[in-house]
Design brief:
Keywords: Glycosidase, Hydrolase. With 663 residues, this protein is an alpha/beta fold. It is 28% helix and 23% strand. The strands form nine sheets. The protein has a nine-stranded mixed sheet, with helices on both faces. The protein has a seven-stranded parallel sheet with strand order 9-8-5-4-3-13-11. It has a five-stranded antiparallel sheet with strand order 14-28-29-32-33, with helices on one face. Mean pLDDT is 95; it is low at 645-649 and 658-663.
Length: 663
Amino acid sequence: MSATEHLSGGIERPMRFVRVGDTDQVWFGSNFWSRGGGPFMWQSYDEGLVREELSTMTAAGLDVTRSFLFWPHAMPEAGRLDEAVMERYAQFLDLHVELGMRTIPTFLVGHMSGENWDPSWRGDRNLYTDTWLVAQQSGYLARVASRFAAHPAIVGWLVSNEMPIYGGSARREDVTAWAQLMVTAIRSGDPACPVSIGDGAWGQEVTGKDNGFSVRDLARLTDFVGPHAYPMGDDPVRQHLRAAFICELAGVAELPVVLEEFGVTSDFASDEHSADYYRQVLHTTLLAGATGWLAWNNTDFDNLPDQDPYRHHPFELHFGLTRVDGSAKPQLHEITQFRALVDRLDLTHCSRWPSQVALLVPSYLDAPQHWTFEEQERTDIVAALEQSYVACRESGLGPAFIREPEPVPDKARLVIVPSVKALTAPTWRHLNEQAANGRTVYVSYGLGDSPIQRGPWWTGLEPTFGVRHALRYGLVEPVEDDVVEVRLLVDFGSLQAGDTLRFTAAGSAGGRSILPVLPLDAEVVAVDQHGRPVLTRKRHGDGQAVLCTLPVEYFAARTSRVNPEDSWRLYDALAVEAGVERRINIDDPRVLTDGLTHRDGDEFGWLINASADTVDVDAYGVDRLPPYGVAVVHLPATPLAPNDPSAAEYRQIQPHRPEGASL
């Protein structure tokens, strides 16, 4: 357990806010359909029921909805808006004002809850490239935006709902041109309110899969980026951190990040575990820079089992924050508590703690097509980065994501490049320079699962790391042990000579391999049970280049229910070697830590139990954390040891925990 200390500087990790007029916004809300009709609510509009549903939301602290103009009903004929639908939508907006709420209308719906819904007049025209159909879309957006632009309930606009599902993948240039026309249409009707696409931020820069919806390209047109996160995973820690990881990657847009959709269906998660999921996602995404949260969705639809899309996607009946009778589910209470905390922090005047750790994102993740880098290779990058992010969090490190070819910022002390197959040649030279400039540069070998040019796309192995590889062309050196035991030969950071790290080997035949090396002027720090070098170090003045010949992050990414695994111990040792300062830290990988600073100097630290265990903390004024519990601590102006007798100085401003648990 390390002592609390003020940071001497680091890489800024942005926290951006959607701006409406002259005011920075923090959005707390839900995606909204009335249980009086779901997507068909505008044909069966019940104002009394909608008032009741909205009142339930606002009483729980949710004052923003994402609302949907179901396109087949809003525009039943080409060029014509349905006036009855528009009038009902106007009443819906008026209810928002009456209740002190605001809404973000979504136009092209389109896709909804497992079904694609076309206006009857669309035919087989392409949504992105058919000029007549694009004109119909843009005209629809412009007219509706102009009609409601002056309404005080409007706080933003979204072009579509999950257009990559509705319109499908397409060429990047076609999608970007279509999006530009849609945004221009909205701005012609309302030049003031913020606009985004509603695509889910599923582009190549985040997922490694090219659907045409480039996060970078769309960012040039829009005012915020809105990830939609519904992960299906095999490891509880990764599952709870996935949305935060996505928010970090979506930061490539350099725009405010609003978690536009997230949630669980009660058919896939019990009430207790649904609350756990919400609690973990809300807090970890805040610490990842998100400044808006729109849950999916406000209500269950048990009354609509015979109506599509619920008839054929019955799990979609139960994503609600409330049951069909209007009673609150535990996850609604989680949002209420979270809202109270964030309001108390005065979030728009807070910033994330800077980081002295740079997590390098290879440029091949969103490489142009002419680079001939395969999708499997790109998704391997995402998997390794995600597991590295988990290990960072478990070791008390909140990394700053640095995208190649951006230079590593001067304030980084530790550079992490996990399980990497390929970096560009200039970046390898830059990493050598970083080590020479006094930083600790850590790179682990990893080929991933693709058989294409299966070898390390590395240069400068000898001058940077002081080793020579002993590979055979077209072949890998397999890891045949189910568990690799890595024994330390010398003291290294927080690890002592004789300590053993254990890594479960997993993955494909190509991925489950080691880089055979011959030390030249490198020190062998650790070896496996066969005596092969696993960790080597070459000194570069005050800096060092550390090579891991095993793809430890890849191994863990390919293993279910693995976290915490020993990568966190390796990362902790690297942080100690690099002199990385941690404002707060718990020497237990189950407890994740990070924090925010208010502009008046107040600092707030988070302790997040990422496990199903009750964890004895006995630090920072926190005795213990229940399973998946969260404690937020107001840190004293004068740093104290975490278990200092004056621990009362650490004031818990709001513990978050499962209902009925105690701290």
